[in-house]
Amino acid sequence: MVAMKNTEEKVIVVASTNQGKIREFRSMLEPEGYTVKSLADLKDMPEIEENGTTFAENAVIKAQSVTDFYGIEAISDDSGLEIDAFDRQPGVHSARYLGHDTPYSYKNQVILEKMKGIENRTCRYVCAIAWTAPGREPAVFEDTVECEIAYEPRGNNGFGYDPIIWYPPFHKTMAEMTDEEKNSISHRGKAIRKLEAWMDERK
Length: 203
Ligand code: IMP
Hints:
By secondary structure, the protein is an alpha+beta fold. It has 5 helices and 9 strands. It is globular.
């Protein structure tokens, strides 16, 4: 996402075309007085190649590309799912795992099949949010949420892997949570709160 300094309103553009992510950013940042836009609102931005090996690297690549192209302060997030039984895959490849355009209903079924008979079902969502500005070192805010792979998909909220991500403290999958419940414990919610605290300190 990109924060464009404007005296009348605080505008943030999410550097993503992922509608689920954009919706979560909106629900967390609009109450804080930001107008949240998506990368689609930025004209002429060339496609950004996410070729980093860590979430933090990819988040910086995205935010820095926008800073370099528009000469503005920028913020972006990179996130994904680490499954311990799969050596922490899909990790930074979460969006591309089994094909970028493959429906998540299918990706989730494949994961459940591969998990059959595996006892260790621990996994986590990771989110890195990067802040960049012309002539400044990037700042990165990272957080995780520890979960388990469920035994079957449940719930219709959220997006992506959420129906098969079981959060033991709530006894629900991420897709069974309301937006508020998910934002209160999620990787993205926690990383955004770190970013907001840092931005507040700088005011
Ligand atoms: P990115 O846009 O390259 O950061 O890709 C992130 C990918 O990680 C998404 O497309 C999802 O596959 C996955 N992911 C990250 N956060 C979540 C979440 O909160 N719920 C479900 N899937 C997620």
